[in-house]
Amino acid sequence: MHAMQYEITLPADYDMEIIRKRVATRGHLMDAHPGLGLKAYLIRERGDGSGSPVNQYAPFYLWNTVEGMNAFLWGPGFRGIVTDFGRPVVRHWLGAGFRPGPAVEAVPLSATRRTERIPEGTDPAEAVERALAELPGDGTLHSAAVAVDPGRWELLRTALWQGSAPERYGTRYQLLHLSRPGLHDLPAGRHW
């Protein structure tokens, strides 16, 4: 499993309805993308009551195959992002674990993401084990994942929620659409 996300921060007065329409008309194009576990079309909106300081489009992906990820990045889907918004930095993490939640068959409406550095002197495997043990299991949890960027020794925790995302799990996003062609192919549990 590979996790990937890019964030496109938009002007404070940007009409986020443009992003909503983009997702409504194009989101389905990833619904059958080979090698994709899931793509969560995420946004944060300034002034919506969630506490977001920015307007942001921030799609999040869990890939089952590197080939699928590469086909997206070098293909027309990502080319459309670059054409419309410029080339964003694409973050990538190696998957360490995945947990389907009690609401995995429901339509998720929100997401959380938290990143943290693995401190110098800390065993990375122990940090990952702790993060896996702390994955939420709440009744509204759709799914959760832990991944690591070994170049930065950064730990990523992400979760999709059927209802409102709990604040305690990190930065909160609205989820506009979920493409999930290989959701059930994402192996549950620890990935090593």
In short:
The protein is of the alpha+beta class and 192 residues long.
Produce the secondary structure layout:
Blueprint: E1 2-6, E2 8-10, H1 17-26, E3 36-44, E4 55-57, E5 60-63, H2 66-73, H3 76-85, E6 90-100, E7 110-117, H4 124-133, E8 141-149, E9 154-161, E10 171-179, E11 189-190
Antiparallel strand pairs: 1-5, 1-6, 2-4, 3-4, 3-5, 3-10, 6-8, 6-11, 7-9, 7-10, 8-9
Uncertain runs: none
In DSSP terms (H or I, runs of 4 or more residues), the helix count works out at: 4
| Strand line-up of the largest beta sheet | 1-5-3-10-7-9-8-6
Radius of gyration: 16 Å
Largest β-sheet summary: 8 strands, antiparallel, barrel
Helix content: 10-25%
Mean pLDDT: 95
Q: Give the SSE string.
A: EEHEEEHHEEHEEEE
Describe the oligomeric state of these chains in a short phrase: single chain
- Taking the alpha carbons of the first and last residues, their distance comes to 11 Å
Shape: globular
Percent of residues in β-strands: 35-45%
Secondary structure tally: strands? 11
Structural class: alpha+beta
Description:
With 192 residues, this protein is of the alpha+beta class. Helix content is 20%, strand content 37%. The chain has an eight-stranded antiparallel barrel.
